[in-house]
């Protein structure tokens, strides 16, 4: 073959198909037991968002005013409440409540997330769905100051009364100042300039 | 009851029988019973101490659930104010002579919880301490070393925390009241122990 000879390039005329405008759809759920479970729950509750994180782990996002309704619906599939945990988002000014549910029949762990404003945070109690929620709600109330309407036993639970008033797990709780007032001279390892921490 | 008799009654354990005192010290040294009151993380170091490798029953030590029969009080790890109330009441229920040993950095100066709102710094301010073991967590060898140290101190007569608690009771009581507020014994401890 000569070096100068160029290889022939077959020119294909591509037929341009008219592109279909894809409709905005929810992310497709995988064809597993988790995906079917989420699809079943979302059929009855169209206001919620749900997705599958990984095997045996699903996640729902629910607006705060529909949370009671959603949890009553979800309690048919998820029979157990494992924990109510709270995340404090200080910059957004919101508390995020995470209801962790466990499905005994399907062995799937679900997060149900909801966000409420930080000031005068109020939630409906879920004691009538899962009686164990009473303890978790008392704890969340003590550490973050969220009021669960309908729970009769809110109040000082684990901490001392003076700590209960401060809600010590909030992000705006000035822990170093509090420790200085309580422990005084014992608290000798804190440097105001924050250059010298001795741990 | 006359005043002299009352003093004798209160200070009965402080009487020393000169002739038999070495024998008594030896007996106390060889029969340290631990009050089974584990705070914080140090409780997990007790099973290796009690089982075959560092078998503490060689030294006549045994865990006992009753404070009335205990000699040695192990503070194993961090102490919260809520636990400190129970510790103080339990310590006062123990019979003299009684010895306190603290494990780890947290009861000494706060340890890793130096800036925590509910961990007591300087346990020494609230109850007298005989032996302190530094470390986080001290392993069973270090605890055995502390126990040997406390045995030496009992033989020397320098393990006198229970005497110091009697002599400086106002100081310890003042610190306890500063932390818990006045009248905490009547408010809290009476719910657990009706006779206080």
Automatic annotation (TrEMBL), chain A:
GO terms for molecular function: NADH dehydrogenase (ubiquinone) activity. Pfam families: Complex1_30kDa (PF00329). It comes from the Archaea. Residues 1-29 are annotated as: Disordered. Gene3D superfamilies: NADH:ubiquinone oxidoreductase, 30kDa subunit. InterPro entries: NADH_quin_OxRdtase_su_C/D-like, NADH_UbQ_OxRdtase_30kDa_su. Residues 61-178 form the NADH:ubiquinone oxidoreductase 30kDa subunit domain. Belongs to the complex I 30 kDa subunit family. NCBIfam families: PRK06074.2-3, PRK06074.2-5. This is NADH dehydrogenase.
TrEMBL record, chain B:
GO terms for molecular function: 4 iron, 4 sulfur cluster binding; metal ion binding; NADH dehydrogenase (ubiquinone) activity; quinone binding. Belongs to the complex I 20 kDa subunit family. It comes from Thermococcus celericrescens. The keyword Iron-sulfur applies. One of its GO terms (biological process) is aerobic respiration. Residues 38-149 form the NADH:ubiquinone oxidoreductase-like 20kDa subunit domain. This is NADH dehydrogenase. The keyword Transmembrane does not apply. InterPro entries: NADH_UbQ_OxRdtase-like_20kDa (IPR006137), NADH_UQ_OxRdtase_20Kd_su (IPR006138).
């Amino acid at each position: 073959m000569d070096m100068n000879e160029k290889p022939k390039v077959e020119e294909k005329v591509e037929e341009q198909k008219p592109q279909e405008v894809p409709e905005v759809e929810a992310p497709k759920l995988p064809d597993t037991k988790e995906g079917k479970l989420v699809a079943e729950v979302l059929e009855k509750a169209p206001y919620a968002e749900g997705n599958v994180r990984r095997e045996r782990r699903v996640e729902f996002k629910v607006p705060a005013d529909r949370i009671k309704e959603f949890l009553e619906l979800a309690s048919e599939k998820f029979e157990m409440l494992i924990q109510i945990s709270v995340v404090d988002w200080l910059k957004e000014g919101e508390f995020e409540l995470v209801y962790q549910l466990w499905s005994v029949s399907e062995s799937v762990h679900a997060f149900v997330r909801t966000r409420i404003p930080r000031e005068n945070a109020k939630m409906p109690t879920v004691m009538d769905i899962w009686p164990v929620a009473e303890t978790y709600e008392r704890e969340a109330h003590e550490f973050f100051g969220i009021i669960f309407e309908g729970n009769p036993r809110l109040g000082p639970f684990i901490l001392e009364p003076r700590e209960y008033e401060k809600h010590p797990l909030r992000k705006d709780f000035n822990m170093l100042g509090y420790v200085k007032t309580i422990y005084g001279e014992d608290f000798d390892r804190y440097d105001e300039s924050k250059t010298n921490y001795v741990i | 009851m006359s005043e002299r008799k009352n003093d004798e009654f209160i200070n009965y354990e402080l009487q020393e029988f000169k002739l038999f005192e070495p024998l008594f010290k030896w007996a106390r040294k060889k029969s340290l019973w631990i009050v089974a009151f584990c705070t914080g993380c140090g409780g997990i170091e007790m099973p290796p101490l009690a089982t075959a490798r560092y078998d503490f029953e060689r030294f006549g030590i045994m865990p006992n659930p009753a404070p009335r029969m205990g000699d040695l009080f192990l503070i194993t790890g961090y102490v919260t104010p809520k636990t400190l109330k129970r510790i103080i009441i339990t310590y006062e229920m123990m019979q003299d002579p009684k010895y306190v040993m603290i494990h780890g950095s947290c009861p000494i100066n706060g340890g890793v919880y130096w800036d925590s709102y509910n961990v007591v710094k300087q346990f020494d301010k609230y109850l007298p301490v005989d032996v302190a073991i530094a470390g986080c967590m001290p392993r069973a060898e270090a605890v055995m070393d502390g126990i040997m140290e406390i045995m030496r101190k009992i033989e020397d007569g320098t393990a006198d925390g229970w005497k110091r608690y009697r002599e400086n009771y106002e100081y310890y009581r003042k610190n306890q009241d500063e932390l818990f507020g006045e009248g905490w014994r009547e408010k809290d401890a009476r719910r657990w122990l009706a006779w206080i």
